[in-house]
Amino acid sequence: MEEFEPRIIAFLCHWCTYTGADLAGTTRQQYPPNIRIIHMMCSGAVDTIYILKALIDGADGVLIGGCHPGDCHYQTGNYKARRRVGILKEIFHQVGFTEDRIWLRWISASEGKLFADTVTQMVEELKKMGPNPMKKLWLA
Amino acid sequence: MAKGKKAEKSRDVLVVGAGIAGMQSALLLAEAGLQVHLVESSPAIGGYFPLLDKTFPTNSCGVCFMSPLPPAYCPIYESELHENIRLMTSSHVDGIEGEPGAFRVSVTQRPTFVDPGKCNNCVSCVEVCPVEVPREFGGGLEKRKAIYLPFPQAIPRSYVIDPATCTRCGECVKVCSPGAIDLDMAEQRHTLGVGAVILGLGFEPFKAELKGEYGFGRYDNVLSSIQYERMLSFSSPSRGMPVRRSDGRVPKKIAFLQCVGSRDPSCGQTHCSTICCMYAMKQAMITKERDPEAEIALFYMDIRPMGKDYERYYERTKGEYGIDFRRSAVSVVKQLQQTRDLLVTYVTEEGSFREEQFDLIVLSVGFTVSDEVKELAQVMGIELNEAGFCRTEEFAPTQTSRPGIYIGGTFREPRDIPETVVEGASAAAQVATLLAADGEKGVRDKVYPEEGALGEGPPRIGVFFLSRGHRLSDIFMAEELINHVQGLRDVVHGEEILVNAPSDGFDRIKLRIGEMELNRLVVAGSSLRTLRMDFGEMARGIGFNPSLIEYADLWEGCGLVHPQGFSETTHKAKVLMEVAVERARRLEPVKKGSSQISRKGLVIGGGIAGLTASLNLARQGHDVALVEREDELGGNARHTWYTLKGSDPQVFLRDLIEMVEGNPKIEIFRKAEVKHLEGSGGNYRTLISVDGQEKSLEHGAIILANGGKEIKPHEYLYGQDSRVVTQRELEGLIHSEDERIRDLKRVVMIQCVGSRDEDHPYCSRICCGHAVKNALKLKERQPEMDLFILYRDVRTYGFYEHAYSGARDKGVIFIRYDPDRKPQVISRDGDLTISTVDPVIGAKVELAADLVVLSTGIEPNDNRRLAEIVGADLNADGFFMEANPKSAPLDFVDRGKFFCGLGHSPNFIEDSIAQGEAASMRAGVLLSVGEIEQVDHVAYVNHRLCCGCGLCISVCPYGARFMDEEIWKAEVMEDVCRGCSSCVVVCRNGASQQHNFEKATVMAMVDAAVT
User: Fold this and answer.
1) What is the fold, at CATH topology level, of the domain defined by A8-139?
2) CB contact A69 to B (< 8 Å)
C-alpha cells in the first residue's frame, strides 16, 4: 500500500510566517511538499470557517502561522487567532474530532529553519494520526 | 580622493553603519524624500539586531514598528526595499571633505567575489568549500566556510567570500551554475556628494578574554553573553536550548557574571555599559522558560534596570522566575578537569570567601568602541571622549564635534534599543533641519499613466513563470505544468520567461498584456518581496492596476525546498497555481485613495522636550502651534541650575526659548489647554482654550510633551522638619547660596524616596545621578564635610559612572539599605539622627546630620484627562503608552500622535532633548509625506448585509470604524484602515469584507488548495 501523504493547508501571516517560509526557501531548508500555503495579511484574519472548510473538504491538517506574541503588525491579530483557535479546538474536542490537526505556531520572519522544522514535524505527526476521518464522513 | 574642485551642494545623506540607529535614521530620511546612501562595513546589514531573538522588557521582538509608516517588514528588509535608500555593504568610508550641505565622501567597496545579481543561493559552493572557520555571527560558536551567508536572514541575501580565509582553490567557481563567482573581482571606489553624514557606528562587545581570571577562551563552558544570546535563539544549532560546549549536556546550574568589561578600571573600562543587567536578566528568564529546572545565579555589583518598565522586569526575574541575585564580586573561575564544571570563587557582601560549582558561566560583556571605528573617527575628523566613544555636547546629543556630521546610538554612549531608536530619529531630525534650509521639497513624486477600465471585464488571466538561475524544467515537469495552467478557467495565456534581472521580463509581459488583452496576471517566480515591488512598479508604469496581479511562490515555496522528485513537486506546483488562479479570477482593481495631511504640528507642553520638538519641526519647514498650560515657557528646567556633566541648563533654556519665540513658523499659546480633539491619522481638528478663549486648530500631527513632576515625599519627616529637603530643593539652596547650607558638618542623602516602592513601582532613573551631582557640589564648597548617601542600588549608568567613582574618591560614603529595613529619620531634642542598617557590617548605624536630603522620584503629570481627550493610552504608572516600547518608543498606535519628555518616562535633560528631536522627526516625516496613501487591502462594508451590531467598531485596533448614525450602518475610514481583517472575521453577516481578501475569495483558494 502506498504510504499515506497528509495534506496540510497553511494560513500564513504576511509579515512574519509567510516571510519566514520565504526565508526557508532562500536558505534552502528542505521540508516535505505536503503543505499548501495560503497567504493572509494576519493570523487574526483567519476565519474559523476557513479552517473548518479545509478540514471538512479533506485536508488532514491546518497550520496557522503568525507573529510571536507582542510582535503582531496589527497590534493584536495573533492574540485574536490564539483565542479563536483555542475555542475551535475545544469544539472539535467536544464533538469527537481530534483537535491535534489544527496547529497554531508563532514563526517570525527570521525563523526559516523553524518553519521547515515545523512542517516536517507536522507531516510526521499527521502520518501517525492517519487520514482525516471527516473526509470519509463527507464521502460516505 | 580627488582634491581640487569644491564639493557641490547636495541633499543626499550618507548614513554610515546599518544597525538600529543607522537604519532608523535612513528609513526616516528616505521616507521624508531624501536620497540616502547607507554604508555598512560588514557584508550584511542589521548590526547586532539579527542576533537578538527576543528583547526586554516585552520578551518579544517588535522591531518592525521602527518603520516610519507601519505596518512594515523588519527594518532590515525595509532598508533594502526602500526606493530612496542605496545600500552599500562591505564598504567603508576612507575620506571626507567639504562642509555641511556640501560634503564629498569617498567610499571603498571591498569585493565579495560573488555577484549578488547572479547568485541564486543554491549553496553548492558551500558544500564544496574546504575551508572551515568560526562564524563571526554569534561570537564564533558555529562554523562557516570561506564562502558563506553571514547569517540566515542576511540582507543583501547573497553569499560572500572572505578573502582572509579563502585559499582560492577555485572549487566553488566550478560548481556555481549561474557563474556568479569571480575570484578576481576588484574593489570599487565611489565618490558621493552628500549634504550631511550620520554615524551609527555602534559598539564592539568587550573582549572577555582580557579578563583572564574568568577563563573565557580557555574553558569551553564559559561563554560570552553574545554567544549565549545566539545559543538561546530559536535558529541556533541547539534550537534555543542552552547547552555545554564540552559535552552537549543541558546545564542545570548557570551563573551570570555582570560587569565584565564595565565599571572596571583594571581593564580600562570605567563606564557602565547600561544594558547588561537587563540583557542578563532577559537571558536568565529565557533560560528558565526553556528549562524550568535550571538554577540560575546572577553575580552583580548594583542592579541597574533604569528604563521604562524595567524595574517590574527585575521584580519578575526575582520573584516569578526565581533567579538568585547575589551582590558579590567574583574573583576567579576555575575549570574542574574531569567534569569541565566550573568552580567560582566569590566574596559575599559581608566579606567572606565562598566557592561554588556551576555547569555553565555566562559573562555579561560590556560595550567598547572598536579600533576600526576609532580609525573611521579620525577619517571623519570627529573627536572622541576618554572612553573612546564619540564626544558630544550634553545638550546637543547627536551633534559631533564636526558640523554636518551627526551620530546616534551606542557610539555616543552605551544604551539600549529604545534610546538608540530615539537617537537615530534625533540625528535624522538634525539632518532634515540642515537640509530643509534650501527650501526645496524633497519628495520625488512619480507620475503614473491613468489606469483604464482594466479588470472590470471578465477575467483574462495571463500566467508567467519567471525563471532566474534555474529553468522551470530543472525542477518541474515544465511542459505538463504549463499545459495544466493553460487549461485552468479564465487563463488565456501561460509561458515561461527567462530573466537575469526581474526587469528583463517586463517587456515581454507588457507585450503580452497588449496582444492577449490580459486583465489579470499570475506571476510565478522567486524571491517574492523584491519581485512584488518591481512588478507593482512596472504595472503602474503602464497603467495596469497592481492589485490585479497575483503571485505564486513556485521556487522558494515549492521547487527549491522539497527534496522529493519531479512528480511530487510538479503536483504541488499545479495546486499552487490553481490557488493563485482562483484568487486572480476574483481580483478587483483597488483604486487606492489618499488623504491630504494638513502640514502643521501641534505640540502640547512648553518644557525642554516640547520646545525642542517645536523648534525642530519648524526648522524642518512645518508650521507649529505650541500650547503651554502656564504663562511661562520652560517647564521643570526652570528649576535646574547645573547638570552632572557640567552644562548650564539655564543658558540652554534661555537660548532655546529665544529661538522658539523668534521662529516665525511657531505660534505660541500660553495659559492654554486642549479641550477637544477630533479626526485621525494625519488630519486633526483640535479645540484649545487660550486664557479662556476658545480656538480651533487644524493639524496633521500632535506631540504630547506635557512633562512630569517631582514626587512629594510623605516620609522621613519631610514637611515636618525644615532640615529635611528634596534634591531639587537642595539644588535651589546651593544655587541661591542659602544660609541653611553654609556651615554643614554632615549631610545624609536617602535614595529611592517615592521610587521602587508600592506607590511608584518604577525606577526614576535620574535620582542617583542627581544625588551624586549635589554631593559633588557640596563637597566642592566644603571638602571637609561628611557626606553619606544611603542607597539601594547606585544607578549611575553610562558615563555617569565616572561621577559616581569621582564622588567616592572625594570621600562621599555610600551605605546600602534594604527596602524592608528602611532608614529612620528621628528628630530628638532638636538633633536630627538617621539610623540605618549597614548590610556590610550587619549592624545598625546612627548618623547625626545637619541636613537630610531626599532623592525623590519623578511622576508624570496627571494626564488622564488629556489622554482621554486626545485618545492616547497610559500605562499603569500614568506615563504614556507607546505603540511598541522597543522600536516605536515615542509613537502612539494612531499614526499622527507622538509624545516625548517626562511623559514618556523619567529622563535626564539630554534624553528629553533627544526625544523632542526624535518626536519632531517622526511627526515631520508624516507631515512631509503630505498625503497618506491607503493600504491595498482596506476593508469595506456591504450596507445591504450590515445589521449595525457594532462588533467591527469595537474590534478595530485603529479606530478606523464608525457607525453612520443616520442609516445605522458601519463605515470604514479608509485612510486609517490598515487592512488587518479583524472586522472581516468578526462580522456575523459577511457585511465586512476586505478588498481582494473577501471571504469568498479565500474560500475559493482553500477549495483549490485542498483538492
Assistant:
1) Rossmann fold (3.40.50)
2) yes
